[in-house]
Amino acid sequence: MNVSMLLDMAAEGFGDRVVIGRTDDGLTARRLRELAVGGAYVVRAADADAIVYLAVNGPALPVAVFAAARAGVPLVPVNYRLGEAQLDALLANHPRALGIADPVHDEALRRAGLPTWTPAEWLAQAAKNTGRPVDDDPARSDSPAVLIYTSGTTSAPKGVVLRHHNLVSYVLGTVEFAGAGSDQAALVSVPPYHIAAVSNVLTNLYAGRRALTLVQFTPDGWLGLVREERITNAMVVPTMLARIMDTDGLDRSVPALRALAYGGARMPIRVIESALREWPHVDFVNAYGLTETSSTITVLGPREHRTAVESDDPAVRARLGSAGLPVPGVELEIRDASGAVVAPGETGQIWVRGEQVSGEYAGQGSAVDERGFFHTRDRGLVDADGYLHIEGRADDTIIRGAENIAPAEIEDVLLCHPDVLDAVVVGVPDEEWGQRIEAVVVLRDGVETDAGALRVHVRGTLRGSRTPDRITRWRELPRTPTGKLVRRDIVETLTAERRRAAGRQG
């Protein structure tokens, strides 16, 4: 099974329906297939072995997804927020790729020597070649369809390989073909290098639901577009929903909205409770997944949300903070440090198995065990009724909003500052972002470098999303006898400091 099959089914089943963009000038399913064929010709004519996408979300992305599939090469959506050195190192892995980049991001592709088009130029090239003959021999089901780079516990990004059968298995297991009505429209508010962006291209198309993207999120901008385009289904990260609920003076009316999915980080209970009160007609869905699992592996559905918020039973009410139940075809195990499966209610490490689970990294091979299970590196428990409760990362990765951030890459930049002797970066619990990035530094004796200067130093290398929200100076960092940082103690101390500061302000 190739993801091109999903587009072929859509083009044959509801070819005249607009599936990408606004109703007045969007792409129909049939036109999307034509552009995918034209794009595949461009890829093959360039003898490219991948499409690198370094741009914001928009119609160019789905055309690239299906053109790559038709041409038998992977799509590589890249984080345009990475620093120059990180981008250069990543792009060096794809010397024969064809590049698509916004003008503000294309310099990195040109440094790498890649042929590069803007999204508009890419769409024009695809349109120009729609009538060209293409050797219609799409990639095999076990060929790579998408390669998404994600930073794990180190500063070096790892390329997650998602094969065609992983993505198709996810779609077929979770979505009903043509199940959406012609009036349904979805709003996706995540960047293209996030797995949710890719999976939403596939699932919305397969359902027959028109999909739009919002590049720059603001609460009033999101609400305005939902009303203007009569959005029926939307997906947000918890930070976005918190800002929508917490911003004063907004018109929060969303008369057409039927379903809202969220995920990517822990949702504060107060936020989801507020949203359920504000929009009682909306079905809320909490989706938990990883890049390595082709997106969603567990879901807390609308009925569970309403039952939990209305219940007086603490166990049932606790489900509002859970990630729900596994989707069809996915198995979960909670294991202790020795690898033994623990009893319901006991905390351990989350392992997952299923056809949609890749667990494979470029150049490193498969990370699944002998039974086909993948270690998510999240900690959690499954309650007596099978609901998954996530308790945080098993490693040190910071999850801020929906973005995974490796502390090591920020620590390395701080340690390059001439006044910094030692540094640690941790995630501190935060109601809005899930986690705040906080750093603690040990400075050389006699220097007076302030936190603002250090934040500017980090921002100059890694840019805003990886700049610590707060930098604190300590005389020394807590370490074990073998020199390892005791991050737990650091997080506890910083959290206590913030509580004391909030108490004084109150």
TL;DR?
By secondary structure, the protein is α/β, with parallel strands linked by helices. Among the domains are: 331-393, Luciferase, domain 3, CATH 2.30.38.10; 406-505, GMP Synthetase, Chain A, domain 3 (2-Layer Sandwich), CATH 3.30.300. The protein has 16 helices and 26 strands.
Describe the structure.
Helix 1 runs parallel beside helix 8 (195-207). Among the domains are: 331-393, Luciferase, Domain 3 (Luciferase, domain 3, Roll); 406-505, ANL, C-terminal domain (GMP Synthetase, Chain A, domain 3, 2-Layer Sandwich). The longest helix is centred in the C-terminal third of the chain and has 19 residues, at 487-505. It has a seven-stranded mixed β-sheet with strand order 10-9-11-12-13-14-15. The chain has a four-stranded parallel β-sheet with strand order 4-3-5-6. It has 506 residues and is an alpha/beta fold.
Quickly list its features:
alpha/beta; Luciferase, domain 3; seven-stranded mixed β-sheet; 16 helices; 26 strands
List the topology elements.
Layout: H1 4-14, E1 18-20, E2 27-28, H2 29-45, E3 51-54, H3 60-71, E4 75-77, H4 84-91, E5 98-101, H5 106-111, E6 116-117, H6 119-128, E7 144-151, E8 157-163, H7 164-174, E9 185-188, H8 195-207, E10 210-213, H9 219-228, E11 233-236, H10 238-246, E12 259-262, H11 269-278, E13 283-290, E14 295-300, H12 302-310, H13 314-317, E15 325-326, E16 331-335, E17 348-353, E18 360-361, E19 365-366, E20 374-382, E21 388-393, E22 398-400, E23 403-405, H14 407-415, E24 420-430, E25 434-443, H15 451-462, E26 470-473, H16 487-505
Parallel strand pairs: 3-4, 3-5, 5-6, 9-10, 9-11, 11-12, 12-13, 25-26
Antiparallel strand pairs: 1-2, 7-8, 13-14, 14-15, 16-17, 17-20, 18-19, 20-21, 22-23, 24-25
Helix pairs in contact: 1-2, 1-8, 2-3, 2-6, 10-11
